[in-house]
Design brief:
The structure is a homodimer of 104-residue chains. By secondary structure, chain A is α+β, with helices and mostly antiparallel strands. Chain A contains 4 helices and 3 strands. In chain A, strand 2 and strand 3 form a beta hairpin. Chain A binds a DNA duplex (30 and 30 nucleotides) through helix 1, helix 3 and strand 3.
Chain lengths: 104, 104
Amino acid sequence: MDIQLKRGLLDVCVLAAINSEESYGYKIIKDMAPLVELSESTLYTILKRLETANMLTVRTAEHAGRLRKYYRITDAGRRRLEEFKSDWSEMNRIYRFITKEDAQ
Amino acid sequence: MDIQLKRGLLDVCVLAAINSEESYGYKIIKDMAPLVELSESTLYTILKRLETANMLTVRTAEHAGRLRKYYRITDAGRRRLEEFKSDWSEMNRIYRFITKEDAQ
DNA sequence: CGCGATACTTCGTGATACGATGTATTACAC
DNA sequence: GTGTAATACATCGTATCACGAAGTATCGCG
């Protein structure tokens, strides 16, 4: 899939992945893998970015002798998901423009 | 609208704008303006990129004393539009994932 | 003559995805 | 008990990209 097209979805996908319950990096990647491939370096960059933007909070906890960072979505994060939904209808309008011109 | 989301559409929008008939930079911007805002610097960057990728061809012609560069889509450009359509169904799958997680 | 519209160009910057590489522990097979 | 895969996170450098700013030049109109 086209990288540029994917770009706009990554942040929101990560937010969606932690929306129902908190999760951690490694699990987020595994959860998203069937739908969207993303490398670890990309994911951790995104998580850091979303944390800076206050769209999620982090807590570190030990699990089976290893440290894990658990990410939890914030209200700002949920608002971001809502905004995405309205952006999506705009995207659909543009899609129709593209396919309309295409048909001629 | 979110810039990242827009990114994936710009190239394809420009291709769609010259798909039915050849056009030139200034007109492309005006045609797209109601749907997608894009600055001149962005457009000309995109046109150069698409030319390098052989998705369009350019011819320069004089019009009312001014030089215009007319852009015409190529077969590769049309294939790109086709690819975009299949990418779009993938995008829709991801969208459903995001809104599904969102509902919980 | 001045100004806005037309038309294209170049430069610098900030944001971003990602491969490569590194660190460290656990679980399991041989 | 040793190696190897899986788990888990971090950092660095690079390439791509959108865009604002600024510039050049012509035409039409008041």
